[in-house]
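User: If only I could read backbone structure tokens as easily as an amino acid sequence. Those tokens are not coordinates but codes from a learned vocabulary of shapes. Could you go through the record with me and say what the backbone is doing? Here is the record:
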Amino acid sequence: VQLQASGGGLVQAGGSLRLSCAASGNIVRLNSMAWYRQAPGKERELVANIANNGITKYSDSVKGRFTISRDNAKNTMYLQMNSLQPEDTAIYYCKLTQVGRDYWGQGTQVTVSS
């Protein structure tokens, strides 16, 4: 299983970005996907996750601003990020969990300037 994250970049505070994570390889139907982020000097933290049936969960810090979604036919997950703030600056990683194993993408940098 391979994950390819994309869509990061530099944006001003209040702006928006849309991240994508494309999964390939031996993907089983029952899986969950998630976005994590890691800011400099901080631990990696969960941003949001989405189950195969579409049930979502968000961290309090992004609730109401970020939207996670997925297209099961394309094995792709998205993260729509609105009202971005400087504290959202981090490397964003995608993760897929299936059959008890975690697979990680390479990360995409998001930088929000004030």
Observations:
- The two ends are 37 Å apart (CA to CA).
